[in-house]
Amino acid sequence: MKLFESITLLLIGLIHFLPLLGVMGVKQLKTLYGVDLTDSSVILLMRHRAVLFGIVGGLIMYSVFFPTLLAVAYIVGAISMASFVVLALPIKNHTPALKKVFYIDMIGLIMLLVSCLGATFFS
C-alpha cells in the first residue's frame, strides 16, 4: 500500500471516527452539528448514529493495516460521504456546522476516489 493511500484512509477514517463523540450526549451533538436537540427519541437516534460512524471510521482505519478489507473500506467510506452530500444538496438552510460537514465530506469523497483510482490503476 502506498503512503498516499494509507494517509488518505487514515484521514477518512478519522473524519468518520470524530462523530463518535456525539455518543456522549446532547452537548457534544450540538457542538458537532450546530442543532438543538430536545426530543429524546431524536437524541437516541443521533447517539446511535455516532456509534455507527465510529464503526465506519474504525473499519476504514483498520483496512490500512489489513489490506484484505480495502475494497470494503473504500465502498463503505464512499457511500457514507456521498450519501450525506446527496441528501444535503437540496436543503438550503444548513447550520454552519452542517455546512462544514458537507464540505469535509465533499473533499473527503474526492480524496477517497483519487486514492482508490490511484491504488487500482497505478499499483
UniProtKB/TrEMBL annotation:
This protein's UniProt keywords: Membrane, Transmembrane, Transmembrane helix
Protein name: Phosphopantetheine adenylyltransferase
Residue stretches spanning the membrane: 6-26, 47-65, 71-89, 101-122
